[in-house]
Specification:
The protein is 14% helix and 28% strand. The chain contains eleven helices and 27 strands. The strands form six sheets. Strands 17, 18, 21, 22, 24, 25, 26 and 27 form an eight-stranded mixed beta sheet that branches.
């Protein structure tokens, strides 16, 4: 019970933000209705298959390629899977909603992709694009803007009989700085060239991820009923730029807004002026302090203009081709092979392994200088005349003894000198930033590798007899304990693997009379995904493998093999100018003879962790596993 409570407390939950857009949705309306009015309904699926409503997006009218601005905040820990169901409907004002397509999304898979976006064909037609990014609450921006003397797009550009219906969109620069994300769309203001848009409340975590200088693109369109909205110009700024330009608080009159700080709308390659936009209100709510730079102007953003209401296409993340791994020292045994003399591989030669950058810990600021008040000058009376003083006879004093002892206060607090206390009173403590999380490393481009090792010792029992840990009835749908551990735990880790290829080893197996504590499982050095591991695992119990279960059970050799693999991966990553980290998942019944710090501390690298999954029928029920995690840090393993 204590171990389970401790494990629960160690779960690292985080909030993620999910956004959606779709392309090529099927036409479900009649010929005279035009394009559809799509919206999306989002639900999460629990482990028992129950659907939990999360919410739905706004309706985007007259389009088959909608980009929704509604964001969904989900709390999730990356030690489990989280599936999201998305169903798209057409809103019919005269009848029931019509389904347009649906899809099931794995949130972890999306979060590990680059650039954090995946597309999936929907059942019913069309493609759904899902973006998942880390979310942090940063407060809100209360923004109201006004357009002034906008150039008309109606009536041959004169706007005499019909005037436009302007609305604006806010786009933020993407993380890879290659495109723009639509984050807010205002309602249109009908038939005017001087629109005053309603005040918008925008989440800062969504708008700029808390970066007050992140480039923003503000675009103005003329709303059309057929969905083909007309571009009326754009300008670029940032949250700090919007804050600096607000002037309504000084005048308190919308009609008297000062145009000196207005933004100019421009359109086309020639940057034709299309009017001005004045920021009436721009206030931050929920932020104690906001650091603003002296120059709020954003950096030069990309020049390519995306279509209205449609995010730009993003280049897929490049695939890093892994160089072939040729073990030099700690080589896993590949059966069948001649029976050589028992061999214990030596640890690989130490080499330089790049360490992840240590989190910056700012020092507390230097105590501010506080001038002391100057005593008022009081002139002393001047003696009327000089009066000699009598000479004092010198009398030697006895040597001074030690200073008298002053007991501490009754509360036991130590004595603090006045000067130190005064200096400390002016110091402002700045807490250090939190250490980077696993998700932060993955988001920053760290390559993740999963390796698996399984215990084939005789202590697991005869795999042909029911009730033993390796037993499976005719290898049907029923999984034994080792397969359940691979599925329940390995599948979660495998989703973070960069290449989706895993080395798979065994230990405590006997080949041709020789006990091997590190050998390759299956015909290939690496297998594809968890399904590949499952297939290689089952092949070890066929007559072709030539393996029999044996004892003793030691893990030192397989750890050395994994350390050599992690070292090679780290060298490849360093060549690609990035980081690499490997996790070795060992599944065992726990009866290990070298489960000591000395046994696990023989490797000389710090780019690998070991996760133990202990399987047994004696722990509550066959479906419950204990997880003990150790990290190898040079020769000093420590419990996480």
């Amino acid at each position: 019970k204590t171990i389970l409570q401790h494990t629960t407390q160690q779960i690292n939950k985080m909030k993620v933000q999910l956004s959606l857009y779709a392309k090529n949705l099927p036409k479900v309306t009649s010929l005279f209705q035009g394009a559809a009015n799509p919206y999306a309904v989002v639900k999460t699926l629990s482990e028992d298959g129950k659907a939990v409503d999360v919410g739905k997006t706004e309706v985007v009218t007259k389009t088959l390629d909608p980009t929704w601005t509604t964001r969904f905040i989900l709390e999730h820990d990356f030690e489990t899977t989280l599936h999201v169901s998305v169903a798209v409907f057409h809103k019919d004002d005269k009848g029931e909603p019509k389904p347009m397509g649906s899809a099931l999304i794995d949130v972890v898979t999306v979060a590990d992709s680059k650039p954090f976006t995946v597309s999936k064909g929907m059942k019913g037609g069309g493609d759904l694009f899902v973006k998942v990014q880390k979310y942090e609450e940063k407060g809100t921006l209360h923004l109201q803007m006004k357009g002034t003397q906008l150039k008309s797009t109606e009536g041959l550009g004169l706007g005499i009989l019909v005037k436009p219906d302007p609305y604006f969109e806010l786009h933020r620069l993407t993380i890879d700085r290659k495109g723009w994300d639509l984050v807010h769309r205002s309602p249109p203001v009908r038939n005017t060239l001087d629109p005053v848009w309603a005040e918008a409340v925008i989440d800062l975590g969504t708008l700029c991820r808390g970066d007050m200088n992140l480039p923003l693109r503000i675009k103005v369109f003329d709303h059309e009923k057929n969905g083909k909205h007309v571009d009326m110009g754009e300008f670029q700024s940032s949250v700090n730029g919007l804050l600096a330009s607000k002037n309504f608080s000084a005048t308190q009159d919308i009609n008297q807004a000062d145009l000196a700080s207005a933004f100019t709308l421009r359109i086309g390659k020639n940057k034709k002026e299309m009017g001005q936009v004045v920021v009436l209100r721009a206030d931050l709510i929920g932020m104690e302090t906001v650091a603003r730079s002296q120059d709020p102007a954003p950096s030069e953003p990309p020049k390519q203009d995306p279509a209205p209401s449609e995010p730009p296409k993003q280049d897929p993340a490049p695939t890093i081709a892994a160089a072939p791994i040729v073990p030099e020292v700690a080589v896993a045994y590949t059966p069948p092979a001649p029976a050589p003399a028992p061999h214990s591989p030596q640890p690989p030669t130490a080499y330089y392994a790049p360490q992840p950058p240590a989190p910056h810990s700012p020092q507390p600021p230097t105590a501010y200088y506080a001038p002391q008040p100057t005593a008022a000058y009081s002139p002393q009376p001047t003696a009327a005349y000089y009066a000699p003083q009598p000479t004092t006879t010198y009398s030697p004093q006895p040597p001074a003894g030690p200073p008298s002892y002053t007991p501490p206060p009754s509360d036991g607090a130590p004595f603090v000198p006045p000067g130190v206390a005064a200096a400390n009173a002016h110091q402002h403590y700045t807490p250090p930033p939190p250490p980077p999380t696993f998700e932060a490393y993955i988001e920053g481009g760290c390559l993740f590798n999963l390796a698996v090792a399984i215990d084939f010792s005789a202590s697991n029992g005869d795999p042909r007899q029911m009730g033993n840990l390796h037993y499976a009835s005719s290898w049907g749908d029923d999984k034994n304990e080792y397969e359940r551990a691979l599925h329940d735990v390995g599948s979660v880790l495998a989703k973070h693997d960069t290449e989706q290829r895993h080395p798979f080893w065994g230990f405590s197996g006997k080949f041709q009379g020789q006990i091997r504590q590190s050998f390759q499982c299956g015909p290939n050095a690496e297998v594809q995904g968890i399904d590949g591991i499952q297939s290689a695992y089952r092949s070890m119990f066929t007559s072709r493998s030539g393996m029999s279960m044996s004892e003793p059970t030691t893990i030192t050799d397989v750890i050395k093999t994994a350390a050599h693999y992690a070292k090679k991966k780290s060298e490849q990553a360093r060549y690609e100018k990035c980081l690499s980290y490997t996790v070795l998942m060992i599944i065992t019944d726990g009866k290990l003879e070298d489960f000591t710090k000395e046994g696990m501390g023989t490797t000389e690298i710090s780019v690998m962790s070991i996760l133990f999954s202990l399987v047994s029928f004696l722990i509550f029920s066959p479906s419950i596993f204990f997880f003990v995690i150790f990290a190898i840090n040079c020769d000093r393993p420590y419990n996480l």
